[in-house]
Amino acid sequence: MALISVDEALSRLLGGVEPVGSETVPLARANGRILAADLAATRTQPPFAASAMDGYAVRAADITKVPATLKLIGEAPAGRAFTDAIGAGETVRIFTGAPLPEGSDTILIQENATRDGERVTALESAPSGKFVRPAGLDFKAGEVLLTAGTRLDYRRLALAAAMNHPVLELRRRPKVAILATGDELVEPGEQPGPDQIIASNHAGIAALVEDCGGEPLQLGIAADRREHIAEKIAEARAAGADILVTLGGASVGDHDLVQDVLAASGMELGFWRIAMRPGKPLMAGRIEDMRVLGLPGNPVSSLVCGVLFLRPLIDALLGRPPRRRDAELLPLTADIGGNDQREDYLRAQIQRDDDGTERVAPFERQDSSMLATLTRADALVVRPPHAAPLPAGTPVPVLRLPQG
Ligand SMILES: Nc1nc2c(c(=O)[nH]1)N[C@H]1C(S)=C(S)[C@@H](COP(=O)(O)OP(=O)(O)OC[C@H]3O[C@@H](n4cnc5c(N)ncnc54)[C@H](O)[C@@H]3O)O[C@H]1N2
Ligand code: MOO
User: Is residue 323 domain-resident?
Assistant: First the structure.
């Protein structure tokens, strides 16, 4: 089977994906979740003209010449408006957030006044509107401030609260079942045999799924035996997974059984093997409405393909807009060689000069088993198929790796 391009693989993977359904979630549990519908303000904020400072509500015209003495006729703390009007030569003690009393048009801050009983002396003038927040300064009722597909965070949740939405309509978190495969693998914390290693991909992929707004479901490690793999696939189906991610066993070795067993479990193959490094044995398909993504076993291939393919798939299920993978260009710190037919994703560090200019430095060694290098990397340099060698200083496309 010929290798297909990364673009072709992405369009086959994402073509026809519809967002998952929605659910109603209390504001307090909505952090990191995705809005399923546009969110409009149910109220105007502030709902009234309000003081932005502690001081005195006055008529600007009364204090154009200073010192000017005014009569104190009441008080307006936040939450308790002064309900009468202010006449000429009068003032009201006011605090930050309180409604501006009728008749007043500016705030004399307390630092610019002295008080003696009911006599307030303005020491400085204040133009009309000074320290007054007009009604609707922040937003107005009916304004759509957050749109469907937005990920909620500390700022957006505060805004949703201010718009008076105690519950939100959010996308259900897509359920992503994760299955590691291979006789050589044991769980972290277990004692590996002399020819075994610790499985790591499932831990990384689960974290990526969570960061993307999905719900990971660990299926554990399947031995390289058909019946064991088939059982785990059935488990993913029974759990109602939206996506089954398999890790390893995707290549061409005698023990790479995953694709066979998936086919026997009813998988319709979308594609297998792509022109990408790392990530050549990537596979995608579906078993009815469960999407299957077969990530290569090499740890860096697994995680890089997770970023390149699993993340956009979860984004699409969440109704989020697609992201470009080559939108940013940074100059190279050193010469790099040419490329073969596979699109290369080189782990690289971003270096910042004293003047703030950023440049990108690919690591010398790019073996796809080297997780420590991946962890030291800030970004991936994207090298198109058949790219020519490039000298230092040439701008190249970079994909910043998602940070926690
Ligand atoms: N003759 C060929 N051999 C290989 C080819 C090829 O085209 N022809 N492709 C190579 C490429 S590229 C990759 S990538 C690997 C990936 O193959 P698999 O997806 O079948 O992965 P495995 O063989 O199961 O494992 C590869 C490697 O990764 C380790 N591994 C597997 N799972 C995990 C895990 N969950 N956590 C940590 N490490 C894991 C495994 O022990 C192996 O060392 O195939 C090349 N071979
Ligand atoms: O995905 Mo493989 O890592 O290209 O070695």
Answer: no
Residue 259 CB less than 6 A away from ligand 1:
no
3: tokens are: 């290798």
Q: Is the CB of 298 under 6 A from ligand 2?
A: yes
Residue 106, domain member (yes or no): yes
Give the type of residue at 13. L
How many angstroms separate the CA atoms of 284 and 275, rounded? 14
Has residue 165 been placed in a domain?
yes
The DSSP letter of residue 384 is -
Residues 126 and 72 grouped into a single domain:
yes
In angstroms, how far is CA 350 from the centroid of its own chain?
21
pLDDT digits (tens, 9 = 90+) for 37-78: 999 999 999 999 999 999 999 999 999 999 999 999 999 999
| Distance in angstroms (rounded) separating the CA atoms of residues 32 and 150 | 10
- Full domain range(s) for residue 92: 50-133
**Residue 116 and residue 59 share a domain:** yes
Last residue of a domain, one of 106, 133, 160: 133
Give the pLDDT confidence of 4-18 residue by residue, as tens digits.
Answer: 999 999 999 999 999
Tokens of 73: 């006729």
ipTM over 0.90: yes
Residue 257 in contact with ligand 1 by CB distance below 6 A: no
